[in-house]
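Reply to dn_fold:

You asked what the input looked like. This is it:
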Amino acid sequence: MFVLHTLMRRGGWRVAVGILSLLTSAALAAAPAPGEYETHRAWGSLTIEKTAGGDLRFSIEVLGGNAHTCSLQGSIVGEVGKADDSDPAAPCLVSFRPQGKAIEVGSNTPKACRMFCGMRAMFEGSYYLPPQGCKPKERVARKEAFARQYRGKDYPRALATIEKLNAECGAFLDWIEIDRLRNDTASTLYHLGRRADCRAALALTRAAQFADADALREELPPTDFESYLAVAKATWHNLKLCGPRDR
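and this is what came back:
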């Protein structure tokens, strides 16, 4: 209220009334449920927690193009969050609207919220509760199970494990991890003698569209290129193992 009073004294009554209206509406709206949410393609994560005092807190982390990021935390009242470290006179207000199994996150004050993001990152979008078996730690455990089966040369089980992971959790993997999974699938198919299927799996990767690292470098931002290069090299190696590319 002190902030609103100060704004009124400085002649910023329209801003004060606008903020008060947003916060009043938020208090009357249903609050989002606590949980750990992720975007499809894994570019953003949202954590909502209830404190010991019963208040709701949020944390948003985003990885955008060329390693640009968003990072903001704050408190939630109803469907509106206020970012910590905001300018009291022009706070970053974030909307959290439950939409079925998702939470639609938006910015009520885009200009104020841009200070929390790099140029190639934004936090607005749909955040979902991952299905059973697809939370980050669960995905890691399933990848480790695949690796054990692959190293043990139990290729039929390894293929079943990696294909099920992709089918159930593929929506929550970023573009680099998806291609890493496709490489694992292709390598397993190669060991099963299924060269055509191996090539088909690799054809879905980004690296398969480029002849070499120089061509790939031309298409990706520098940091994205460096992050993806090892996966791309694995793709090109697997393409040689599985025979010529489809023409």
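The domain at 136-241 is CATH 1.25.40 (Serine Threonine Protein Phosphatase 5, Tetratricopeptide repeat).
Hope that clears it up.
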